[in-house]
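Task: fold both queries, return tokens.
Query 1:
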Amino acid sequence: MKALPWILAGVGAGAAIAYVILNQPRPQAATGWDSVENAADRAVRWGSKSRVSGAGAKVAGKLKEGIGRIAGDGDLADEGVADQAVGAVKDAVGTIAQAAGDTLHDLNR
């Protein structure tokens, strides 16, 4: 159990780095409507946040599942599996939002 705080710290640091990297400002198009560009940027930012949140939920679900299996607690293990599914859905929705934002940006050029 001495390694658990280090694992959690590593996951937290990784999530923070991913959040910063995924939310870098993107170059604005020289042409097109600013309102469409703003909508595209908001969609990409929201998608990035959703993907990071989904990755965090998947990691937390794996931890819960592992602890539940080690402790013999079937309910905790099942809750961990459910958290992993929620994380996968958030990740997929974030990917779709990012793709929609990129498509809006490309169409606005």
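Query 1 returned. Query 2:
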Amino acid sequence: MYDNARAGRRAWLGLRVRLLKTGQMSTNTSPEYRRCVLGLLRRAGLRPTRQRLALGALLFGGPDRHVSAEILHEEAVAAGERVSLATIYNTLHQFKRAGLLRELAIDGTRAYFDTNTSNHNHFFIEKEGRLLDIPGDAVQIDGLPEPPPGTRISHIDVVVRLVPDDGTAVDG
């Protein structure tokens, strides 16, 4: 299912870019956009329920982003969706299992979900609880141990924690 989801996500992103460039899709509530999300869910093997469609529209309606369940719940309520926080958590985990999201456990108390599922690393702005992608191959790791027999390393998560050096907010 994961390979289908990844291929479906690539095709969907290409379609989204074409629709945005041609002006055929201006917001994540347009019929074209809803069809894109519908196709994305179907290719990932997920039944396109009303709530999955609504949450997919919020998650994938722009550039890649990092969200917590609480942030997504606030956005859904602000958009007029009637959805419980438990449903948000369940849907995020379903999207993750389908390969549409990547989960990042940062401090043990809150999980973030990244719409960019590629293998990449992050800055974490501690004071703001905000994640930023680290560009490309900016992090290099040498000397990895051999994994136990029958296993392989799927990816390595590097989180570089940031604090302001002079008490001001961190931009990014």
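Both queries returned. Flag for query 2: The first helix runs from residue 2 to 21.
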